[in-house]
Amino acid sequence: MDSKPFTTKELESVINALKSNNSQGYDDISTKIQNVSSPVINLSLNYICNKTFSIYIFPVSLKYSVLKQLHKNGNWHDIFYYRLVSFLTSFSKKNPKK
């Protein structure tokens, strides 16, 4: 299954489509920082995305997530008032889909 490589223009549209905010994953890099630095990192990120799809292997470091318990409301001592939140790297959200 061969697919044509992604262009930097396609990757740029994916980056621009993501909500720009200060939230960050375990790597402490926010989507806001990535959006601002896009002109500088776009070529390298494009290479990584194309390599990922050409060898059919997603980088292990981008699969990693951190789970944290978030208190919803109610009794702080009751486990039913917590939910798990998964923190991913914002780079792992940027792989264009074809």
Give a quick set of tags describing it.
single chain, alpha+beta, 3 helices, elongated
Helix content: 25-40%
Q: Main beta sheet: strand number and arrangement?
A: 2 strands, antiparallel
Number of helical segments with 4 or more residues: 3
What separation lies between the terminal Cα atoms?
A: 12 Å
Textual characterization of the structure:
With 98 residues, this protein is α+β, with helices and mostly antiparallel strands. The chain is built from three helices and two strands, in the order αααββ. Helix 1 crosses helix 2. The radius of gyration is 17 Å and the shape is elongated. The relative contact order is 0.23.
Could you give a quick summary of the protein structure above?
The chain is an alpha+beta fold and 98 residues long.
List the helices and strands and how they pair.
Blueprint: H1 8-17, H2 31-55, H3 60-63, E1 66-71, E2 82-87
Antiparallel strand pairs: 1-2
Helix pairs in contact: 1-2
